[in-house]
Amino acid sequence: MDTVRKTPEHPDPAPPPPGGVLWSLVGDVRTLLSLPAALTLQVAHPAVGAGVDDHSVFRTDPWGRGERSLTSYQLWVYGGPAAAEEGRRLRRLHRTIQGTDPHGRKYHALTPAYFSWVHATGYPVFRHAQRYLGRPFTPAQERQLYAEWLRVGRVLGIHDRDMPGTIEEFWPYYRKVLDTEIEQTAVVRELIATDQPVPAPDRGPRWLRLLLRLAWPALRPGFLRLRRFLTIGLMPPDARRAIGLPWTDAQERRLRRLGLVVRLVVPVLPERLRFLPAARRARREHRAARRQGLP
Which of residues 11 and 14 earns the better pLDDT score? Predict the structure, then answer.
């Protein structure tokens, strides 16, 4: 189940190139708003949901898990030579994740169908969220996004045979999984719940952690409602229906208004506020290399 080790005959797969769709998308702070929808769609698969339910620390250390996941996610695109090593690390981490799903079926995290589904969910969620949070992708950009997402899959050790090779092949695969596999798992219900005992954020300067800890009883209900709103709203409608998540016309109007504000505000922010740290660093290094005439 492990990926092929780097050798002269099998060099490491390269991450997506600077200047591509993912290069701009993944490091933009707006992407943070769509990640809960992608995660929820992943765990709507019973095998994936069972693996997270049985082995993840998302309940006891949600902020730490989120920070580690985001760091890993940024490496896939901006990590350069470190991207493939991060892919190998993730596969090593998932080797021991196995068990039985709620239907009594055995699962292993590195089973190609399950591991590929986790990766595949990024494409439809990014595509849908972009319609609210940025300029909708053109057909050419959608194709480029999918081609680059396949490159990220190779970085993660996903074989080409385990992912649809084109958009035309992707949509039948995606709809088949929605029709035959996806359901409202226990983890899905937790991720959209508004009454969960989520601990206060424990990252950042000490003064901020203390302030959040004191204010968290008042902030937590609003945070959970916003998380549910963004999770369901930025999930593609066909996936939303497959899982059985409610969404009203009034909520759609509110999401469109929020999206308008985001589209107007974020592009005019300075780079240090608009892009995540790994993206800012990669963008600086790329600009410096271009000034020196390097590829």
Answer: 14
Q: How many CA atoms lie within 13 A of 42 on its CB side?
A: 21
Is 203 domain-assigned?
Answer: no
**Per-residue model confidence as pLDDT tens digits over 59-117:** 889 999 899 999 999 999 999 989 999 999 999 999 999 999 999 999 999 999 999 99
Tens of pLDDT, residues 25-49: 999 999 999 999 999 999 999 999 9
How far is 152 from 156, CA to CA, in rounded Å? 6
Which parts of the chain are beta strand (E)?
Answer: 98-100, 106-108
pLDDT tens-place string over residues 165-198: 999 999 999 999 999 999 999 999 999 999 988 9
Task: Give 106's strand partners.
Answer: 100
Determine the Cα–Cα distance for residues 133 and 266; give it in Å rounded to an integer. 9
Contact present, 127 and 211 (Cβ < 8 Å):
no
Q: Structurally, how many domains does the chain consist of?
A: 1
HSE-CB for 221 with a 13 A CA cutoff: 2
CA gap 115, 117 in Å, rounded: 6
- Paired residues of 107 in beta bridges: 99
- Report which residue type is found at 115: F
Task: Report residue 79: phi and psi, to 5°.
Answer: -80, -10
Structural domain span for residue 256: 21-185+234-291
Asked if residue 202 belongs to a domain, the reply is no
Could you tell me if 26 and 279 are in contact, meaning their C-beta atoms sit under 8 angstroms apart?
yes
Is 104 a member of any domain?
yes
283 in a structural domain: yes
